[in-house]
Amino acid sequence: MQILLASSSIYRKTLLDRLGLDYLCDIPNIDETPLPNETPHALASRLSFEKARALSGRHPQSLIIGSDQVAVLDGEILGKPGSAERAEKQLQQASGKCIEFLTGLCLYQSQDDSYQLDVIPYQVFFRRLTAKQVRRYVALEQPLDCAGSFKWEKIGIALFKKMQGDDVTALEGLPLIRLVDMLSQAGVSIL
């Protein structure tokens, strides 16, 4: 059975490459707008499912991996900043606080419309940051396409006083520990 990653994210592709699987990528075309009164947890779950299911018609004999991440600060969803100014603002708001990342993961079997679905949380606790530190960080890493406005894999680690969760790859956007479990249940062994 063909494995398919339902994503255009270079970050998710890089993560999935770690497992050494043969897979294809395809881009799902779904509306990612939150529904009225939808919780961040429900949003991450729904979007990961919809991304995987959206490709089932084009890939009828596939295991389709869908994932989506929602970053939450003080109960509000943080989007990708898109600009240095917005990245600086997000990081200043996060200073001394915790951002929770909720990463939805769906493994959809298109041949019979069955699926496994989960949301994996991960928390990042920020140091107190000065405006100068924030500006310097944004200038160095340009994290404009990252929810939360950082890349922990590089110098972004200096922003944190603590990280907490079961799977750090959930923070990067594709929880590999849970994905290995799902693939195993679907009959795909990584080892």
Describe the structure.
By secondary structure, this protein is an alpha/beta fold. The protein has one domain: Maf protein (Alpha-Beta Complex), CATH 3.90.950. It contains six helices and seven strands. The protein has helices spanning 10-17, 40-54, 84-94, 131-141, 168-172, 176-185, and strands spanning 2-6, 24-26, 62-73, 76-78, 98-109, 114-126, 160-165.
CATH topology: Maf protein
Largest sheet: 7 strands, mixed
Structural class: alpha/beta
Unreliable stretches, pLDDT < 50, 5 or more residues? none
Average pLDDT number = 95
Number of contiguous helices: 6
Instruction: Spell the H/E element sequence.
Output: EHEHEEHEEHEHH
Rg estimate, integer Å? 17 Å
Strand content: 25-35%
Give the count of structural domains: 1
Helix content: 25-40%
Could you tell me how far the N terminus lies from the C terminus, measured between alpha carbons in angstroms? 17 Å
What's the β-strand tally? 7
Layout of helices and strands:
Elements: E1 2-6, H1 10-17, E2 24-26, H2 40-54, E3 62-73, E4 76-78, H3 84-94, E5 98-109, E6 114-126, H4 131-141, E7 160-165, H5 168-172, H6 176-185
Parallel strand pairs: 1-2, 1-3
Antiparallel strand pairs: 3-4, 3-5, 5-6, 6-7
Helix pairs in contact: 3-4
Could you provide a short overview of the structure?
This protein is α/β, with parallel strands linked by helices. It contains 6 helices and 7 strands. It has helices at 10-17, 40-54, 84-94, 131-141, 168-172, 176-185, and strands at 2-6, 24-26, 62-73, 76-78, 98-109, 114-126, 160-165.
